Amino acid sequence: MEGPRGRCRGLGNRVGSALIVLASVVPIGIPTRDGAVAIYFRSTAEFLVLKRLRSGGYDWSDDGCSVPTRLQMSVRAMRYAAYVFVDECRHHDFAYRNFGGRLGLDRSDAHRAVVDRHFYEQMKRRCRRLGRGRIQRTVCRVNAGVFYAAVRAFGSFERPSTRSGIRGAR
What one-character DSSP code corresponds to residue 60? Predict the structure, then answer.
């Protein structure tokens, strides 16, 4: 339905622009590196809109934040952080499954570093939006740094995680 400013009511600018990019960049059934780049290197909110459409032949599966269960149980902050960052983890999983994983669109270490850095930036963005006070935002940023260090140290495009992670709903 046409809104007062010529756009669909109920669709924000982000959703509308994400749909336009998807339609113009992602060929149906043919996953490409350029298509995966166009999908991944956007905000997590825009990515989640595209994920709901699941087109282009990409691997859209995810395991949430695959923090080892023993670590989740022993460090409560890790379990909380995995819940806070679940959407960012889903976003990051797309990159690992498509640039690496089964599709192998770009398995280079240099590209993995760029992907992981984007993950870190998206987590810090989430922390800035937390309206729960400076201390909680600081704790959030520290946890974002821990998650980033973990994917840099233990992540692999060759073996993306299939572990069941925290899959909290948002």
Answer: -
CA distances from 50 to 41, 53, 132 (A): 12, 5, 29
Q: What is the pLDDT of residue 70?
A: 63
Separation of alpha carbons 42 and 44, rounded Å:
6
How far, rounded to the nearest angstrom, does the alpha carbon of residue 42 sit from its chain's CA centroid? 9
**For residue 59, how many C-alpha atoms fall within 13 Å in the half-sphere facing its CB?**
20
What is the percent of the chain where pLDDT is above 70? 71
Side chain identity at residue 135, one-letter code: I
- 88 in Cβ contact with 69 (< 8 Å): no
> Do residues 31 and 58 lie in contact, with contact meaning Cβ atoms separated by under 8 Å?
yes
Q: pLDDT category, 156, cuts 50, 70, 90?
A: confident
The size of the chain, in residues, is 170
Question: How many alpha carbons fall within 13 Å on the CB side of residue 136?
Answer: 10
pLDDT over threshold 80, residue 8:
no
Distance CA 151, CA 16 (A): 32
